[in-house]
Write a structure and sequence with these properties.
Distance between the termini: 52 Å
Number of strands: 5
Length: 275
Amino acid sequence: MAFVKISEQSSEYNDLEKKSVGEILHDINTEDKKVALAVEKAIPQIEKLVTQIVSRMKRGGRIFYMGAGTSGRIGVLDASEIPPTFGMDPGWVIGIIAGGDTALRNPVENAEDDPNQGWHDLEKFNINDKDTVIGIAASGTTPYVIKALEECRRHGILTAAITSNPDAPISAAADIPIEMVVGPEYVTGSSRMKSGSGQKMICNMITTSVMIKMGRVKGNKMVNMQLSNAKLVDRGTRMVVEELGLPYEEAKRQLLMHGSVKKAVDAYRGIESED
């Protein structure tokens, strides 16, 4: 059976320019409701991936996201949220986009078409067989990502792929393909819409569940979050108050002294923190 790019098929809607703003918004919302259902069907594959990532990260492995255009930006975005949310060093989850950081804001011509550059970009990080590389491509046909995944597999590196099309070439290049079939986009071929939303949901699921299993969450709280602004200092202080029963000002003093909720609570209780 021939491979079909469902994500690039014609929209189920037409004459968009003739619709009212309200009609457009309701249409987009109707389409967006399909995304969570598509992601739900991919949970078994996501679970398989997360389980293997956790065992590797406990041995010092890292997560790499790779993509081009919107897909690359989604990976970089998710990676950039890990240090402030979970207090992890930026080197644990890394986002790589075809064309480099310039491509985060401006398209870089032909960057995604170079089949060799992806692996070269990974080599800069001294990638090894403890690491995991997750390729993201809505179309499932991006040469920059596919060739990098193939090289990773040759070197014994765990690979996964997130795509919007079933049986895509990128799926064949990955150990664990994650196919969330969201259907045609509202604006034909605009993968920044449903495909992008689904990609971010899956990335959220991967890194959040990994971080929980790595001990970066206690109960339901971000006890290792970076105290980067007044709002987060207040939130952390209230966590310390709840955990230790201290007055607010004393809890805040302990928090600022030790740098995180977990470290403050452990120090107060005489427990040596792991990090």
